[in-house]
Specification:
- The protein is of the alpha+beta class.
- The chain has a single domain, classed as Thiol Ester Dehydrase, Chain A, CATH 3.10.129.
- It has helices at 10-19, 36-43, 75-92, 180-186, 241-247, 251-254; strands at residues 56-61, 102-113, 119-130, 134-145, 158-168, 219-222, 258-264, 276-284, 287-295, 301-311.
- Strands 1-3-4-5-2-7-10-9-8-6 form a ten-stranded antiparallel β-sheet.
- A hairpin with a 3-residue loop joins strand 3 and strand 4 (134-145).
C-alpha cells in the first residue's frame, strides 16, 4: 500500500492514538515499561500466515544499488522492495478506488538468512491482522542466490520476514474507516480483527551526551534532495540510511539473525527546511537504539522516528518449508 504521506501532520496522531492503547500524541515519548504483550511482540517471531491466506506475489531482480560493499541487501534497500510490492498491491486490490491513501506507522524487518547480490527475490504479501482503520501487512522475502565473478561462492537461500502497521487515511491525511470492500477483502487472510497499536520502541529519549560519560555524542546526518518523495516528505526508505551507517560500528548485531524496528512519529518534510537530522543513539546489550531528531516549532529537538536493531537467537525462526 503506497504511503501518500506518512505521519504528515501530528494532528491526526491524536485521533489515531486515542483509539489505540498508547494514548500520547504522535511524537510524544512517555517513560514506559513494556508489558507482556509488547515484550512478546518484540521478541517473538512474526506471525505465520493463516491457512486461508491469499498472497500478493512479485519477483524482483536484486540490484547493486540496494546492497552494501559486502554485497548484503541493506535495510534501506529492503524497504524499497517493500514499498514496490505495496504500491503494486494497492494498484490491483479490489479496494484501490475506495481506499487509495495509506500511511505507514511502523516497519519490522527480521533478517533470518542474509540476502546478498546477485540473486532473484520473491516477495509474498498478505494481511496478518486488522481493525477498522488500520492493518498489519506481512511480507516474506526469499532470495535464490546466484554466483558471478564478484561473488562466486554458493550461499543458502536468503530470507527476510517483515511486518508493517498501515493506517488508512482520507485526502486530508486523517485516519479513516476502511470501506466495506476493504474490510471484506483484508479479512479473508486473518482472523485477528481487533488490531491495536502498541509501540515496540518504548524507551524514552535519553539526555544528550557530551561523550565524557562514554555515551556517544549526537551526530548530524545530512539529507539530500533525492531523499524526498513527490509529497515533499522524506522517503520511508531514506530513514534507514543513517541506521546502516550506525551499524558499521556494531557488526556483532548483524552478524547473524537480527530484528530492525522503525516507528515513524513525525514527518520530515522538505518545506520545513530540514537539511540534516540529528542522530542520538545508545547501545544496550544486544540492542542498538536510535532516535532521529528534528527541530520542533520552538527550535527544541523532537523525535521524528525511533529505531531499534536487536540481535536474535539462531533458533528464532523455524526452517522454511
Amino acid at each position: 500500500m503506497p504511503s501518500l504521506k506518512h505521519d504528515e501532520d501530528p494532528a491526526w496522531g491524536h485521533e489515531a492514538d486515542a483509539a489505540c492503547t498508547d494514548t500520547e500524541p504522535m511524537g510524544a515519548r512517555r517513560v514506559t515499561t513494556p508489558d507482556a504483550a509488547t515484550e512478546a511482540a518484540l521478541t517473538g517471531p512474526l506471525a505465520d500466515p493463516q491457512p486461508q491466506a491469499r498472497f500478493f506475489e512479485r519477483d524482483y531482480k536484486l540490484r547493486t544499488d540496494t546492497v552494501d560493499q559486502s554485497m548484503r541487501l541493506r535495510l534501506d534497500g529492503t524497504a524499497r522492495f517493500l514499498q514496490d510490492i505495496a504500491n503494486e498491491n494497492i494498484e490491483v486490490a479490489e479496494f484501490t478506488d475506495t481506499d487509495p491513501f495509506w500511511i505507514v506507522r511502523r516497519t519490522v524487518i527480521d533478517v533470518v538468512e542474509p540476502i546478498s547480490w546477485p540473486g532473484e527475490l520473491h516477495l509474498s504479501r498478505w494481511c496478518s491482522s486488522m481493525s477498522t482503520r488500520w492493518t498489519n501487512m506481512r511480507v516474506t522475502v526469499t532470495a535464490q542466490h546466484q554466483t558471478n565473478p564478484f561473488n562466486p561462492e554458493p550461499r543458502p537461500t536468503g530470507r527476510i520476514e517483515s511486518e508493517a502497521f498501515w493506517i488508512n487515511v482520507n485526502e486530508q491525511g486523517m485516519p479513516s474507516r476502511l470501506s466495506d470492500i476493504a474490510i471484506e477483502f483484508l479479512s479473508r487472510t486473518t482472523e485477528e480483527h481487533r488490531l491495536r497499536w502498541k509501540s515496540m520502541n518504548p524507551a524514552p529519549l535519553p539526555e544528550a551526551s557530551d561523550g565524557v560519560d562514554g555515551s556517544p555524542a549526537d551526530r548530524l546526518h545530512p539529507l539530500r534532495i533525492t531523499d524526498f518523495d513527490p509529497f515533499k516528505h522524506l522517503n520511508n526508505a531514506a530513514y534507514w540510511e543513517p541506521v546502516e551507517e550506525e551499524l558499521l560500528d556494531h557488526p556483532d548485531i548483524t552478524k547473524g539473525r537480527f530484528r530492525a524496528v522503525i516507528e515513524y512519529l513525525r514527518a520530515i518534510d522538505y518545506a520545513g527546511g530540514h537539511e540534516a537530522i540529528t542522530i542520538r543513539r545508545r547501545r544496550e546489550g544486544d540492542q542498538l537504539r536510535m532516535w532521529l531528531l528534528i527541530p520542533g516549532a520552538d527550535g527544541e529537538l523532537v523525535v521524528a522516528s525511533t529505531v531499534t536493531v536487536t540481535k536474535l537467537p539462531d533458533d528464532y525462526y523455524r526452517a522454511a518449508d
